UniProtKB/TrEMBL annotation:
<dbReference type="Pfam" id="PF03548">
    <property type="entry name" value="LolA"/>
</dbReference>
<dbReference type="InterPro" id="IPR029046">
    <property type="entry name" value="LolA/LolB/LppX"/>
</dbReference>
<keyword id="KW-0732">Signal</keyword>
<keyword id="KW-0449">Lipoprotein</keyword>
<dbReference type="InterPro" id="IPR004564">
    <property type="entry name" value="OM_lipoprot_carrier_LolA-like"/>
</dbReference>
<protein>
    <submittedName>
        <fullName>Outer membrane lipoprotein carrier protein LolA</fullName>
    </submittedName>
</protein>
<feature type="signal peptide">
    <location>
        <begin position="1"/>
        <end position="20"/>
    </location>
</feature>
Length: 204
């Protein structure tokens, strides 16, 4: 459970300066991202997660891989330095912690919202203004979308979400900032879109 919470409540701000997008640029970005989302059925990638805690002098690095299939299947697997796997499917969360398998329903309000956020972030379908206040900016070669949760319960765990999109309107980094300002940074690499995914990825 501790590792699950570390995964669910992670990710962070960068120091790269960002330039706000104009209304026209925001509209064009949304249109392009939504269009891209419609054609993405699956995504596979490797990732590095860097967890930063103020009381530690060095960030904690973990490595892994993910697989996502529409509408709601997500396999998130840490491979180094420990073995830990989380499978989200519909309203169920299954966890394999070094061989110890447990299952729970995602009926907890916060789990549901974070699960939906993860899936929406990967698929590019996250422009829900009822759930988040949003700002859009250019950051280096990426588009940075900042999401501020409106839900008071979620705000206890996540104060701000940063999503970085590459030039192809695909998420390349996902960041969740905790109220304490501790954070982690997840960077995706070796992304594969619309390739066949073995169903075993979504089963324990």
């Amino acid at each position: 459970m501790k590792k699950l919470l570390i995964f669910l409540i992670s990710v962070a701000p960068l120091t790269i300066s960002a330039q706000a997008l104009t209304e026209v640029q925001i509209r064009d970005f949304k249109t392009q991202t939504i269009a891209k989302n419609k054609v993405i059925q699956t995504m596979q990638a490797d990732f590095i997660q860097k967890k930063h805690l103020d009381f530690m002098s060095k960030d904690i690095e973990t490595f892994g891989k993910m697989a996502f299939a529409k509408p709601d299947k997500l396999n998130w697997q840490y491979t180094k330095p420990y073995q830990y796997r989380i499978v989200f499917q519909k309203d169920k969360i299954t966890v394999n912690d070094a061989g110890n398998i447990s299952q729970m329903k995602a009926d907890n309000k916060v789990f549901k919202k974070i699960n939906n956020l993860i899936v929406s972030s990967i698929s590019g379908d996250m422009f829900n203004e009822k759930e988040f206040a949003m700002t859009f900016a250019k950051s280096g070669k990426s588009i940075l979308v900042k999401l501020l949760p409106k839900d008071k319960t979620l705000l206890k765990y996540v104060s701000e979400i940063h999503l970085y999109f590459d030039v192809d309107s695909v998420v390349e980094r996902v960041k969740l900032i905790e109220p304490s300002k501790d954070y982690a940074e997840i960077l995706f690499s070796n992304k594969k879109l619309n390739t066949k995914i073995d169903e075993a990825n979504f089963k324990m």
